[in-house]
# Entry
Amino acid sequence: MAEILVYVDHVDGAVRKPTLELLTLARRIGDPVAVALGNGAADTAAVLAEHGAVKVLTADAPEFTEYLVVPKVDALQAAHDSVSAAGSLAAVLVPSSAEGKEIAARLAVRIGSGLITDAVDLEAGDEGPVATQSAFAASFTTKSRVSKGTPVITVKPNSAPVEAAPAAGAVEALAVSFGALATGTKVTARTPRESTGRPELTEAAIVVSGGRGVNGAENFGIIEALADSLGAAVGASRAAVDAGWYPHSNQVGQTGKSVSPQLYIASGISGAIQHRAGMQTSKTIVAINKDAEAPIFDLVDYGVVGDLFDVVPQLTEEVKSRKG
Amino acid sequence: MSLRIVVCVKYVPDATGDRKFADDLTVDRDDVDGLLSELDEYAVEQALQIAEEADDAEVTVLTVGPEDAKDALRKALSMGADKAVHVEDDDLHGTDVMGTSLVLAKAIEKTGYDIVIAGMASTDGTMGVLPAILAERLGVPQVTLLSEVSVEDGVVKGRRDGDTASEQLEASLPAVVSVTDQSGEARYPSFKGIMAAKKKPVESLELDDLDIDADEVGLAGAWTAVDSAAERPARTAGTIVKDEGEGGKQLAEFLAGQKFI
# Structure
């Protein structure tokens, strides 16, 4: 069977969920070979093996943390060259994070391959992997494939279930030689984002978002309380972010993050195209809004026309008591 | 020597219009109005600010696209860019990101540059990879997704806010920079700016001028193929209730039925 390179997104050896989802998709088209780079790379092997990696290629060097993106491209290219030389490489899969997309893009140019970004599904096809994507604020669904070179595809979080499928996961050291461009962009300082204890927005199974109707930073507490009762991430519309009520890192929409959770709850959000672009692929959509005419109601599976200051706390209490 | 800034911009279908695909599965540009991609306005703004800080700088705005794409260039010129370059060629129809980046890279090299600035993504394709690909093609550092940017003594510095950390970045010029919508509000063109823009030079280039063969671009030269594009079925009308005191409880009932609670 052909091999599929899977780029591993991890923090000091802790593999992030979108990578495990990628392994599920990779197994549909071949044997996953994982590539883990940087501090803690070798520590990822056990969980990757548990989820189907037949092999785990690892490399660590200060370049991966001290310089932006390019050292990782050099390493992924080395993995590409080594796997291609030894057998048949059918695709390279990378999680659709901001950095993941940049790594995938540079690799694709270097190896002369077509690039597909933000796939939401992947299946085997006669002429290579076929990727499903959403276009125009999710009003269209397209099916695409790479027609030149080894397909390089980035996949959005929540596109596949995480499935256990134990495999060998043999760890091998990857030899990497860094090119002249690797040290071009220096990372002079890094401040880790403070953990809120909530799931990461793009990875969360449930997202609870607040918009203009929340009417003030101090009121976001009720959105957070609902999120916490459901184990959800908190999102915000552009209006709420621009007003300074919630951090930009939580913005859902065209100019913010694109999310695709199992459940999306929009509170006090009208549903402008800007916002819809970032959440329309959510599986189940719920909205709470005073305005019965708000366009968000065109999208919902369930909507409540009412004051979020009444509905949201009542819902939170009900969730808590049911979870008891 | 003058600081040469090239801003890459894109002319995109208006997101509030009825965007769709044409029969050949390229973006239908006939049935919906186009405009300068909103996210590129932030790039123009940062280019103008960097130019204002420099002793001597020139801002060139560059686009690849059909005749109408001149509107995007005019908007950037009316904001304050000095001149424009428009790459237009019938053979470009259906070009994917790999082809577009090739054309941009050649045009940038022909124009001459110290800094290339782009928006974080276009508002139509939304791939967000073009700046990184340009850096790869040009063989210069990428300093991308910046929410803050400054240039001093031949060095570009900026802040990149990622999912897990906020990073301070630094690279020597020449470099490719991209900025987010957090980099600073884009200015509105003044009446004077709009009048002045009419007199600013717009250079037109074709593929021949850039030594690019027609088979390297267009639908035939694309490295990816779209096999189908289907309009998503409208969501079947959901249940909508009016809150009469029990709205939260009714919603909880729905969520429990869907196994979310």
